[in-house]
Model the fold of this input.
Amino acid sequence: MKQAQYTIHGINGPVVKVVGGKGLAMMDMVSVGDEGLIGEVVGVDLDAATVQVYEDTAGLKPGQPAVGQGAPMAITLGPGMLTNIFDGIARPLKVIEEKSGPFIARGLNLPSLDQEKKWDTTLHVKVGDTLAPGQMYASCPETPLILHRCLVPAGLSGKVTRVVPDGAYNVTETLVELTDDHGGVHPLRLAQEWPIRTPRPMADRLPIDRPLVTGQRIIDTLFPIGKGGAAAIPGPFGAGKTMTQHQLAKWSDADIIVYLGCGERGNEMTQALEEFSELLDPKSQQPLMNRTILIANTSNMPVAAREASVYTGMTIAEYYRDMGYHVALMADSTSRWAEALREISGRLEEMPAEEGFPAYLASRLAEFYERAGYVKTLEGKEGSVTVIGAVSPQGGDFSEPVTQNTKRYVRTFWGLDRALAYARHFPSINWLTSYSEYADDLKPWYDEHVGPEFVSSRHQIAHLLQKESELMEIVKLIGADILPEDQKLVMETARLIRVGFLQQNAYHAIDTYVPLDKQLRMMELILKLYHGARDIVSRAIPLSQLKATGIFESLAKMKYEVPNDHQEKFDEYDKAIDEALRQVNEANR
Ligand SMILES: Nc1ncnc2c1ncn2[C@@H]1O[C@H](COP(=O)(O)OP(=O)(O)OP(=O)(O)O)[C@@H](O)[C@H]1O
Ligand SMILES: [Mg+2]
Done:
């Protein structure tokens, strides 16, 4: 390949002007300076170009060379990504740390994947077979949980002219030779390259009709997200964005988790790494890392690589989707990513739009979230990428551009609330401002898999919370005492819902993850008490008599008392409700 040779003319932070050559195209990858820093073309003139560099440019000087690589910024995809931790341009952080200490050595163009490790590979084709894009030619167990399926890359087809026997191979060895119609020979290996800014192709987009089950009650019942959907978690400082993302990474029923720490504190990533390594997957009892990939571009790392990291994460997610897996991509935080865009845009001297963000902020966000989806893969399987983006608006002000634009492209919105977090109501998802536009599409799934009672209970719970908020307005003005008894009951039940159901303690062994059937049982018990109590107050018996039995307090604690595998304990609560209602009825006979 002919390389485009340029010379550095000027440097402004991560933005480098190169001159005196020709041949660079937009998005081409460039090796910059004597150390060969990694960069990407973001602007071209006749004999000059602007390059954004993904590494620290300190020490870079005008006059040094810049060499185009003749291809867009791409990453290597293959076995060994799971359990790994990468930087924003998919360099392996553990290897880098071993080689150069905690500070990333520059120009260290390390391969993403271990080149030596041998994978126990099965070949699925024979000489003479005709292969089309998306067809599987080889597979290897990547971890005990995940079979890595190697598929013919998009745009490539032909006849198999050579194939190795089953055995142990590393990612660089040729397994299959594919000869196309023009006689061109293409080696197929365990690993392949893909340009990060190009969405990986699929056969078809399918409707989103099943939830990503998270085990978090307020999410699964009130504001569910579909597999292949997109959600945003906006919230002020310390409201629980990272915690919520971690909970979903640990407990959601995705096959693969891609966790992207974008511009956040380095110690949070270390913590994630440690926690995920210790935790076991609830279904398989395997370490969670066996289905997890971490991408870290923390606040101390170069800003341009942060811009790229979301595409790196998305490309990896799509790659596993194409194998027929359900992938969840968590990005924490997209605001830090947008700030990287803003910084680079400023250095490029582009015209700023709202709050200094570039005018293309909205289209970039759209491009990112549109890569989520439930798809039919080229191979004909079903796979999905669900995207969950944290947003950290300055001062918790949701009217700022990143939150507002994100809202346009996601259909689930979990708005975290400062007041709730302050009151230690976690998760601090505000039930009045949050929404899920998937709820109706998912109803048939809930009806079939949990029972029609699930959705009807959800409606009643949501309705009671809504009524509470209306009554609160009155209570604020004139106090709770003058409310009629049936409205007092609404307030009391809503309080039980908030404390006993919506609040969920991530640190509590039993409460941290709750399966759907248990969520339903909890809702049903709360509603059973409500209906029984309504009957009592309708007969002019004061609610205080029922409260005096302690049944409301008792139900508020059931979340800590009933283990997921001992749900028969709910029967005791069921009996306790009957008993409390009976006592009050008896006393008023
Ligand atoms: N579900 C939960 N259960 C228990 N505690 C929680 C929960 N969610 C959040 N917290 C508490 O809130 C604290 C702050 O949460 P977290 O770090 O996730 O906030 P954040 O929104 O990511 O903050 P920042 O803006 O600094 O990134 C946690 O350390 C934890 O103590
Ligand atoms: Mg955080």
User: Anything to note?
Assistant: The pocket of magnesium ion (ligand 2) is lined by residues 241-242, 264, 332 (CB under 6 Å). The two ends are 94 Å apart (CA to CA).
